[in-house]
Structures are given as C-alpha cells and as structure tokens.
Amino acid sequence: MFVPSGTMGNLVAILTHCGRGDEVILGDQAHTFTSEAGGIAALGGVHPYPVRNAPDGTLALEDILGAIREDNPHYPRTRLICLENTHNRCYGAALSVAYTAAVGRLAHERGLKLHIDGARIFNAAIAQGVDARDLAAPADSITFCLSKGLCAPVGSVLCGSADFIREARRTRKVLGGGMRQAGILAAAGIVALEKRVDRLAKEVAAQLAERGVKVGVAGPRRFRAVTHYWVKAEDIEKALAAFAAVLRSAL
Questions:
Q1: Which positions ≥6 away from 99 have C-beta within 8 Å?
Q2: Domain total of the chain
Q3: Which of 69, 169, 195, 245 could cross-link 75 (Cys pair, CB 3.0–4.6 Å)?
Q4: What is d(CA 16, CA 150) in angstroms, rounded to the nearest whole number?
Q5: Could you tell me if 139 and 237 lie in one domain?
Q6: Residue-number span of the structural domain to which 68 is assigned
Q7: Is 1 helix (H, G, I), strand (E, B) or coil?
Q8: Which residues, at least 6 apart from 42, have a Cβ–Cβ distance to it below 8 Å?
Q9: Direct distance between the N- and C-terminal alpha carbons of the chain, in angstroms, rounded to an integer
C-alpha cells in the first residue's frame, strides 16, 4: 500500500495493529519513538515502551521479554514489537536475518505482532548480501521508503497480509493519506524498485569515479584511498569535496 512518507507508513501500521491503550515495544533510539512527533500516542492512544538500543541497532531479546506485560488490568496490553532496519540513529547499522527471525519467533510465541520500519531495508540487504524478503519474512508488516537510496521522488510502501492491508487502507484514509493521484507517484516507485535496487552496491565508488576520484571498495561500508608523492594538497581537497558531494546526494 502506497503512503506519502515513512512516518505515515509506520503510523498506519501501528494504529492498525494496536487499539487505544495498547502498548508497543520499540527501541529508545527508534525513529518512531524519537522523530515521528509522538503520533502513535497523539493520534492512536498507543503507549510506547522504549527498550535500550544496542550500538548495532538491536534490542536484547531478554529486554524485549522483560517489557512484555502480564495480563493485569492495571497495565496496558502489549500488542506489538517494532524493529528498525537499517537503524538510523545507530549509524546505519543493518539487522541480520538471524536476529530478525529470533525477534519474530519471540513475538509470535507470545501472541504479539512484529512491525519493521524498513526505511532502508534494501540497503541492509545489499550490505549483507542477502535478499530483502529474508529480512522481511518474520514481520507481520514492514514499511520501506522509495526515496531513500532508490531515488524515487517521494513515497513509501507498507506491506502485510491481505487482511492487514484491508484494515490499513481505512487507517490511511483517516490520516489523510488516501490520494486519487497516487498512481503518478507510485509509477516512479515502480521504476525505483525495478531499476535501482541492484545499483545500491558500490554506488559511492562509482559516483566518486565520475568526479575523478578512484577508491577501493574494502567492504560494504569501507573504502581504501591511497596517496603517493605526486598527490598534492589540492588533490586531497578535491577528493574530500567529491566525498562530501556524493554523500550529500545520498541523503
């Protein structure tokens, strides 16, 4: 289901999974918790239970278990666990297939749902050499952005079962996200998915080369640059400017 933004995609997902007074477990550095204007509480009456994010973006399984409420009328009902992949505030850390599967098992064993804020899920897949569908498989819903890395001008996609999307359409309408003109924007998203995903790998190196700067790709997020006697100070400045331009264009 097409939505104008990742923030709306996450909001629609959480409000579809949860009712007023229900609780969602998520990271204390999660974009939904820190940077989405408290929408789940303000608009849905959903209570966030923040759990500490490790530097690699994960939530410790024991911390998730400790956050799940017992059935007690004094407490909100735990309904949902949210993960973020890649994790924005944890320096773009990519969650692994194994970790995501472990959280999915934990959630479903306890009768909970799992939502993934997969704004940059294709970047996570490329970085780890895995299929994005394997990263998404344990989730009951997932969002991803068409405009991050995939170069579409606008929009995100919310995915889930047919029954989930049927309800999510109603939530999207309440939030003002039902657009008659969505096809024009979605068309660019289709091009992004069909043409841009495979180009995410080593794209920084390719763009640097276009600016006359050649680097070696030492890993998914590492480059190797070498200087020698004939490289002048102004050449270093040129290389730094090229890096700055390429990285700015990727934001």
A1: 58
A2: 2
A3: 69
A4: 27
A5: no
A6: 2-195
A7: coil
A8: none
A9: 24
> Are residues 68 and 43 located together in one domain of the fold?
yes
Phi, psi at 38, each rounded to 5°: 60, 25
DSSP per residue, 182-247 = HHHHHHHHHHHHHHTGGGGTTHHHHHHHHTT---EEEETTEEE----TT--HHHHHHHHHHHHHHH
Q: Is the peptide bond before 16 cis (omega within 30 degrees of 0)?
A: no
Q: Where does a domain end: 195, 221, 236? A: 195
The residue with tokens 């007074």 is 21
Contact 168, 131 (CB under 8 A): no
Pairing of the two strands 216-219 and 47-51: unpaired
The alpha-carbon radius of gyration of the chain (Å, integer) is: 20
The residue among 192, 187, 120 whose CA lies nearest residue 150 is 192
CA nearest neighbour of 108 among 53, 49, 173, 64: 64
> Cα separation of 151 and 154, whole Å?
8
What is the chain's pLDDT, residue by residue, as a tens digit (251 residues)? Answer: 999 999 999 999 999 999 999 999 999 999 999 999 999 999 999 999 999 999 999 999 999 999 999 999 999 999 999 999 999 999 899 999 999 999 999 999 999 999 999 999 999 998 899 999 999 999 999 999 998 878 788 999 999 999 999 999 999 999 999 998 889 899 999 988 888 777 666 878 888 888 999 888 766 667 778 787 788 899 999 999 998 888 777 65
